[in-house]
Amino acid sequence: MTRHFTRRGTAVALGVALSVSLAAGCSSSGGAPESSGDGGGNAGTADTPRATIAMITHEVPGDTFWDLIRKGAEAAAAKDNIELRYSADPEAPNQANLVQSAIDSDVDGIAVTLAKPDAMAPAVEAATAAGIPVVAFNSGYDAWKDQGVQQYFGQDETIAGQAVGARLTTEGAKKTLCIIQEQGQVALESRCAGVSQGFTGGSTEILNVNSKDMPSVEATITAKLQQDPTIDHIVALGAPIALTAVQSKANANSEATVVTFDTNAALVEAIQSGDVAWAVDQQPYLQGYLAVDSLWLYLNNGNTIGGGTPVLTGPAFIDSTNIDAIAEYAEGGTR
């Protein structure tokens, strides 16, 4: 199937959209577009044909990290005259079914996460075979190109983990506990593997927990800290786990330092208060925004971003030296 879009006024539309994007970046809401009730800005809309894009992730709404991704996607959709259909399921077969449903409804583009790429491969291949452009983001760094996905937006989780390990070494850590909240999720496992590779100052132990049962997470981390008081650093792989680890540390009377991947507004406050030492930021709002905006660019101007390589949105460290600047954007709901 060949998908056609009217090219009338495309150059003008792209210019208008760029102006809108720049204006949104200077808004009074801490860098976020002014809300119009749909997560997007109200400064204007691109004069390009109305298109439908499905965004299908492996996490359900309500998770603060994924709420940021959705906000970014909604901002791009509002600017680009896109109907955004967001859906999610943590179970890979169900997520694959959502991709197939998007194909069956004849969407114009699909943005998808590939947390469990083997399970997602048949659905992604079906989308590309149907002539629907597909971009991946957040998860699937090592698999997106093999599956025929057009573009990827996210971070190399192994490199990010190695950066964390190197920083732990520099800070004098000796015994690190890396907490994986979902077994089999390749991005999370790559993070802890990277931490182990980059941390040369001591040893790294993996602790598996189930993020769907946070009271159990708190109890498991508490028990581990009580069992092994030599643990001096806790590496969480998400803000909710980090905040729970802070409570577990108090329960166990542990002196361990808590650090984490990923942020949310509460995590920003925890860095400001010193409860969490630092975090790795992969900019989830930007991932959602770029995933939608890249499909709009492709549909209306044949553009691709990255030249066949992934577009990296992280890692970057957030700590006491820059947290106040980040906090402004977190208050606006975009970091």
From TrEMBL:
<comment type="similarity">
    <text>Belongs to the bacterial solute-binding protein 2 family.</text>
</comment>
<feature type="region of interest" description="Disordered">
    <location>
        <begin position="27"/>
        <end position="48"/>
    </location>
</feature>
<keyword id="KW-0732">Signal</keyword>
<feature type="compositionally biased region" description="Low complexity">
    <location>
        <begin position="27"/>
        <end position="36"/>
    </location>
</feature>
<protein>
    <submittedName>
        <fullName>Simple sugar transport system substrate-binding protein</fullName>
    </submittedName>
</protein>
<feature type="domain" description="Periplasmic binding protein">
    <location>
        <begin position="55"/>
        <end position="301"/>
    </location>
</feature>
<feature type="signal peptide">
    <location>
        <begin position="1"/>
        <end position="23"/>
    </location>
</feature>
<keyword id="KW-0813">Transport</keyword>
<dbReference type="InterPro" id="IPR025997">
    <property type="entry name" value="SBP_2_dom"/>
</dbReference>
<dbReference type="InterPro" id="IPR028082">
    <property type="entry name" value="Peripla_BP_I"/>
</dbReference>
<keyword id="KW-0762">Sugar transport</keyword>
<dbReference type="Pfam" id="PF13407">
    <property type="entry name" value="Peripla_BP_4"/>
</dbReference>
<dbReference type="InterPro" id="IPR050555">
    <property type="entry name" value="Bact_Solute-Bind_Prot2"/>
</dbReference>
